[in-house]
Structure formats: C-alpha cells, structure tokens
C-alpha cells in the first residue's frame, strides 16, 4: 500500500518537478543519489590528476595558464557536488573516507595514464565532451541541488571541451610529429571515452530504477550514440581517424554505426585493475594524510577564536 | 537547456567562438612598447626579466601543489596564486623582450615560438634572474605559507613603487600585480597566524619552515629603502602570531641559484624544447 508520503513523492516525480532536501524521499532514492553525486564529485577530484600531470611541462605560458585554470575549475566542480551531496545528510569528510576506502567509485576514464601533451587536448575534446553528453540531461534531474549544480557545471564544461579541441586543432597545424602525437592520443582515448557512458542498456542493472525516479533521463546507449554522432564530424575537421573499422554512417537509421568497446576491460578497470587505479587513490590519500595536521590546526584555531569571542 | 546547445559552434564559425582564441595572442597586443625617452632599455629589460623570472619560477612551484593541498578550498587558492604570477610573468617577459630584443634566445628560422616563451623555455638556469626564495623545492603546507608571506610582502612593496615607473607598460603591469599580491599576502598572513596558534604540531612546522626560509629573505631586497615598510607589516604578523623574528644570518651566494633550479627547468622546458618548431 502506498503511504501519503510516497504518493506525494511519486506525484512530484510524475510532474517532473524537483525533490528538495527537506522533502520526504524513499531511502533507495536517497542512497542512489548519494552514490551518484559522490561518484561524480570524486570524478572531478581524481580527474585533476591525469591532466595535472602535464601542468609542470606545458609547452607555452598560455597553455600552462589554460591547463592550470581548467584543473582548478575541476576542484571547484568537486566542491559544488560535495555540497549538493551534503544536503542528503552525509558530510564531505565521510564522502572522502568512502572514496579512500574504495567504497565509492569515480569515473573509470581517470584510471588511464596521460602520456603526451596531446592527451590534454584529447581529454578536453573526448572526455569532457562525453561528460557533457552525460551531464546536460542531468540539469533536469529530479533532485533540486544536484540539478542546480549541474546547470552551473554545464556552463563551464564547454570551455574545457573547446580548449581541448583548440589545442588539437593547433597541433594539427604544427609539425608532422605533433600530428602523429594527436592521432596516437586519440587512438588511446577513443574506446575508454565510449565506455564513459556505462555498460550497454541490457547490462546496466541500476538504470531502470534511476530513470523511473527521474534521476537519469536518457539511457547509456542513447547517450553513447549521440556522442558518436557528434564526434565524427569533429574528427573529420581535425583530420584524424577514429580507431574503429566498423564506424560508418547508416542513412537508414540516421545515425552512425560503430563497434563495441571491450566491455571486459571496463569491468576490469571498475574492479580496480586499470593502469592507474592504485596510483590515483594513493595520490589522493597522500594529499589527504599530508593535510591532516593543517585541518586540525584550522579547527583548533577556530575553536580558540570562538572562545576568545565569548 | 537544449541537449545539443553546448556543442553548437565547436565546428565552423569564426575564431572568436573560442574561449581562449585560436592563435598565439601577444600578451601586449595593442600596447605601445616604445621605450620612453630617459629610460635605459637594457636596464628596463633587466628589471622586467628579474621580476618576470621570480613570478614564473614561484608560479611553477605553486602549481606543483595542484591536487595536493590539505583542502579543496586551499587547492583552489594556491592555483589562483600560481595563475596570478604566471600572468605577471607573461607580461613581464614580453615587456623585457620588447624593450631589448637582444636578450631573447635565437630559435630556428621560422619557429612560431613567441618571445616570452623563448625566454621561459629556451634559457639555461644560469640565465635566470630569479631569487632563490622562488626556486627552492616545496616542503609542507607551512613552507608554502611562509614562502608566500615573505615573497609577497617584498614583491608587493616593489610593485607598489613601480606603479610610478616612467615606463607606462611596466607601471600598468605593476598596478595589476599590486591587487593580486595584496591578496596573496593576506592569505599567507592568515595561515601564518593559524599555524602559529593552531596545534603544537602546526606551530612546530611553521617555525621550522620559517627557519628554513629566513636566510633567503634578505636576497629579496634589491634596494634597502624597501625594508622599512615591509618590516612594519612583517612585525605585525609576527606579533599577532606570537612568533619571534628569527635571528639567522642571510645565506651566502646571493645572486646565484640552488641546485634545484636546473632540475625544475629540465621538467618545465622538456616539451617546448623537443618541439622548437611546434605550435601549441
């Protein structure tokens, strides 16, 4: 039997209205949101590392400024999302502990290494591009604070994608070595980018409930198709080849046909066996532990100030 | 919001669609860089190079903190300081190159590398004019707090004076820098006091960092008349923090570098030097 609280919640979802922090919500809805928003926040923070790897070696002062500002933005996005998640009754400290304990995930794409400066461009173009595909529909997600964070983030992401595409464009106008760097980088990141949309719909266990709750608005496969359709003309304009022999326009469907990523690889990376899983978590853990004395000092100082004021 | 709107304009259109432009921008575009009468061009270039190198080298150290700070808020703040100093470095190196083109390293014919990048990425460590305070390797968070406090106190006083430079370009760069440095100093001052009065451990770490960096403080002063104003502010911070002024002698070898600079530059310059004809 449906309780009046449940009926109210269901009606809000049916009207495509927002659920707000003080509204009643089913435990499963709350748990799903905490898992998804936390995973998103952790992705922003862990995602600082692969690109951050090249800040010290950026080949021009302008590129160094663009890259540093971009990685700094990711810290900012992490902040918005941790705040949105805190409205569900969990603290940032708890979320960080869950990440470091391996109990919450982050996007698998960040478990791949960045091996040349072209990767900065490719991450902007493909990884941020795929992230935008995932995130724009989330601006209409049913939980208010999450949707509003996404609106803000989606205003900034296109700049990230453009700086990446612009870097690749500029490199393609440079030397033959630079053009080869771009192609090599795209070859490495193409399939992991397609995996960012998650497993195929028939193997995505949580999708159906998330769609019913209005947390998720499009299926994994729909978004993946949209991403491929948008990326192909961009690759042509760039003058690179996407590494998929099955990729071709299908006039009947009005979409591109494309090959399937190696889903066993995605499963392995999610389970912790990607090239950089250990390294990424160790980096975050080291920063967190090295900073413990600073956080303690700030807390002690604030307590002392409060005492003086009393 | 339309699902597709964020992709509009990634292809086609004119270059103004880009967030950061599509070509190398001259950081001094549209600015008259003629050296005014009565100003010695080589001296002006030398001064800009020194200030530019200080900013560039410390920016590089601050950027190393990215993704490593104790809290996200502090990660963002440190990246901000690195970005401010990087912006100052770009303008100052471009000004130095325009004032005296003979200082710019010669690259292969047809290289698209702009002058400020040639100065940043194609000089050897021995040609850098920065102080050692900017280049010594990072330590803990107390180390970056003390380094930023001492560095920004003196740089702020230096730039305040240069807002009256007879060279209008340098005066304008200095005026922009004053606003930025004021914030860097205030942030570092707040954390200095917080560490000094937080816990026993934070105080111990702060005093250790201060002892490490104090011998490099003297080298920041290029003219003695900057000392009085700077000392007033520093003494205020020390008093509030309850930290005695260190009684340590300046480190010998002022005007030279530590072993750390060439290592830092090897990393900073590696991609640029591998592609002297590259476009980025």
From TrEMBL, chain A:
InterPro entries: Aromatic_CoA_ox/epox (IPR052703), Ferritin-like (IPR012347), Ferritin-like_SF (IPR009078), PaaA (IPR011881), PaaA_PaaC (IPR007814). It comes from the Bacteria. SUPFAM superfamilies: Ferritin-like. It holds the Pfam family PaaA_PaaC. This is Phenylacetate-CoA oxygenase subunit PaaA. The lineage of its organism: Bacteria, Bacillati, Actinomycetota, Actinomycetes, Micromonosporales.
UniProtKB/TrEMBL annotation, chain B:
SUPFAM superfamilies: Ferritin-like. Transmembrane segments: none annotated. This is Phenylacetic acid degradation protein PaaC/phenylacetate-CoA oxygenase, PaaI subunit. The lineage of its organism: Bacteria, Bacillati, Actinomycetota, Actinomycetes, Micromonosporales.
């Amino acid at each position: 039997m449906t309780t009046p609280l449940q009926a109210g919640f269901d009606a809000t979802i049916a009207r495509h209205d927002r659920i707000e922090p003080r509204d009643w919500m089913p435990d499963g809805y709350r748990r799903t949101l905490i898992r998804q928003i936390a995973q998103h926040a952790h992705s922003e923070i862990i995602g600082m590392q692969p690109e951050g790897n090249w800040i010290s070696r950026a080949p021009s002062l302008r590129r160094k400024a663009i890259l540093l500002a971009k990685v700094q933005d990711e810290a900012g996005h992490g902040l918005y999302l941790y705040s949105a998640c805190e409205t569900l009754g969990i603290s940032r400290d708890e979320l960080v502990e869950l990440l470091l304990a391996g109990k919450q995930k982050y996007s698998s794409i960040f478990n791949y290494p960045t091996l040349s400066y072209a990767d900065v461009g490719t991450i902007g173009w493909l990884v941020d591009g795929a992230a935008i595909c995932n995130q724009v529909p989330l601006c209409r997600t049913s939980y208010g604070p999450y949707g509003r964070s996404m609106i803000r983030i989606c205003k900034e992401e296109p700049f990230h994608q453009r700086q990446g595409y612009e870097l690749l464009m500029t490199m393609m106008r440079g030397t033959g070595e630079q053009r080869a760097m771009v192609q090599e980088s795209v070859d490495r990141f193409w399939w992991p980018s397609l995996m960012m949309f998650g497993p195929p719909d028939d193997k995505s266990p949580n999708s159906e409930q998330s769609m019913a709750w209005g947390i998720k608005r499009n299926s994994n496969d729909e978004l993946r198709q949209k991403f491929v359709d948008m990326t192909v003309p961009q690759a042509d304009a760039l003058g690179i080849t996407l590494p998929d022999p099955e990729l071709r326009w299908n006039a009947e469907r009005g979409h591109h046909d494309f090959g399937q990523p190696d889903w066993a690889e995605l499963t392995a990376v999610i389970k912790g066996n990607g090239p950089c899983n250990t390294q990424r978590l160790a980096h975050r853990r080291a920063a967190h532990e090295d900073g413990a004395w600073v956080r303690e000092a700030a807390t002690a100082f604030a307590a002392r100030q409060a005492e003086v004021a009393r | 919001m339309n699902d597709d709107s964020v992709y509009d304009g990634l292809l086609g259109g004119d270059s103004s669609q880009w967030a950061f432009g599509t070509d190398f921008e001259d950081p001094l575009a549209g600015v008259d860089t003629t050296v005014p009468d009565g100003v010695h061009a080589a001296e002006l270039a030398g001064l800009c190079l020194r200030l530019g190198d200080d900013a560039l080298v410390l920016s590089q150290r601050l950027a190393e903190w990215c993704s490593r700070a104790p809290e996200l808020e502090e990660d963002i703040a440190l990246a901000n300081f690195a970005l401010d100093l990087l912006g100052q470095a770009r303008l100052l190196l471009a000004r130095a190159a325009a004032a005296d083109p003979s200082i710019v390293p010669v690259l292969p014919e047809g290289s698209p590398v702009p002058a400020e990048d040639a100065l940043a990425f194609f000089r050897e460590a021995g040609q850098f004019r920065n102080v050692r305070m900017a280049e010594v390797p990072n330590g803990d968070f107390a180390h970056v707090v003390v380094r930023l406090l001492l560095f920004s106190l003196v740089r702020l006083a230096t730039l305040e004076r240069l807002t009256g430079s007879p060279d209008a370009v340098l005066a304008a760069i200095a005026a922009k820098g004053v606003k930025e440095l004021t914030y860097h100093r205030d942030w570092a001052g707040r954390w200095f006091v917080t560490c000094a009065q937080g816990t026993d451990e934070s105080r111990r770490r702060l005093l250790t960092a201060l002892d490490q960096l104090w011998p490099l403080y003297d080298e920041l002063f290029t003219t003695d008349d900057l000392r009085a104003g700077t000392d007033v502010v520093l003494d205020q911070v020390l008093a509030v923090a309850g930290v005695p002024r260190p009684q340590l002698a300046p480190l010998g070898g002022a005007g030279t570098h530590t072993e750390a600079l060439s290592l830092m530059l090897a990393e900073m310059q590696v991609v640029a030097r591998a592609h002297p004809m590259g476009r980025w």
